[in-house]
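General statements about sequence and structure are easier to judge against a single worked case. When preparing material for the folding task, we compiled for one chain both its residues and its backbone structure tokens. The amino acid sequence and the backbone structure tokens for this protein are reproduced below:
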Amino acid sequence: MGAGHGHEETVANAAQHHRGRLWAAFGLLAVLMVVEAVAALRTGSLALLSDAGHMFTDVLGIGMALAAITATRHANRDPQRTFGLYRLEVLAALANAVLLSGVAVYVVIEAVGRFGDPPEVLAGPMLAVAVLGLLANVVAFLLLRPGAKESINLQGAYLEVLGDLLGSLGVIGAALLITVTDWWWADPLVAIAIGVFILPRTWKLGRAAVRILVQAAPKHLQVTAVHDRLAAVPGVAGVHDLHVWTLTSGMEVASAHLTMASGADVGTVLTAARTALHEDFHIEHATLQIEPGAAPGACGSCEW
């Protein structure tokens, strides 16, 4: 018996609520990405190119977030998709992590190659464009921050903008240093610093997405604790075939077989079990199969 359709709608509506913010951030960063890329080629700045690359992944990531939200909005009504397309946001988050990691690794490799003979860069235009990039990222950061707490997909876009914001600060610092001292090594050094800063964060996001995709139990839940709590429900003689996983951000799902004690009332047991999962573990969607205690093994070989 299942429960929690209202919670699924709440999660979906939360994503829809941030759609306007995503579109605003998408448009702003897309324009600045083109400006930074052109400026990087004209000035010869690898740090600025790194920032433009990160901004590209920002734009791509936000675009995938918008696509996932739009697809989920319509596909969840398809009866053939019994779980809708909630996992699209997880796939988008994983793609964001992979893309951003690739950009960071590429820039670090290129920067290392420049240490032998760092080329001159045009610090003036580099500084002006980096300031524009910083302002754009501050606006995008403020737009995405509220949604980052509700969706792993929005969290991915938020992390990319955060990394790019710090990257813009680094580019500004490098440009100022080159202007004052003609120390050309500042450009590749900042490029490496940007890459080293963002890689651990993207890997963390990627691990979180993979954990959901392989249907591992949520990190904040102990499956043994869920088992013991269900076993403690009055009228439950045993619990087996218990599974707990995350469907998408903020949506934990569970299924279990409950063996009833002699004389227990089915409706009472189901209500108590669902209440326990909701109050103790915030699991809103649970599919619970009731088995009579007089027929052990009635479900066949179901342990997997």
Remarks:
- DSSP finds nine helices and three strands in the chain.
